[in-house]
Amino acid sequence: MATTTDNVKDMRDNLAGELKSVIKEAETLLDDTHDHAEKKYNSAREKLKAALETAKTELPKATKKAVAHTKHAAHVTDEYVGDNPWKAVSVAAVIGLLAGLAIGRNK
Fold it and tell me: For 51-55, which contacts have Cβ atoms below 8 Å and span 24 or more sequence positions?
């Protein structure tokens, strides 16, 4: 009977030791993944910061270009209408007529 009790105690001690080992390995794994995830997070954060800084510097340039192109298009259109007023009125009338017909058919 003493041997059975000793065997149970040995098995219990072995199981406790194995459990402690598994817990230690799990804690190590958690720490390692935390560090890895933190590095990935910081890397992604830095990339996002860089992209935002680029956007901040490029947006005013793009806005200036868009405004310049719009002003140029408005100037060219103004010159064309000034040089060809009847053509402009005719084109506007045709567009208005077509829009009116399209709206009238949908109702």
Answer: none
Sign of the dihedral through C-alpha 82, 87, 93, 94: negative
CB 73 within 8 A of CB 80: no
CA 56 to chain centre: 16
Distances (CA, A) of 17 to 8, 11, 22, 29, 105: 14, 10, 9, 18, 84
pTM, two decimals, is 0.43
pLDDT digits 0-9 by tens, 16-50: 778 788 888 888 877 777 777 777 777 878 888 88
Are 88 and 80 spatial neighbours (Cβ–Cβ below 8 Å)? yes
Residue 81 contacts residue 88 (beta carbons within 8 Å) = yes
Count of other CB atoms within 10 angstroms of residue 44: 10
Sign of CA dihedral 75, 76, 82, 88: negative
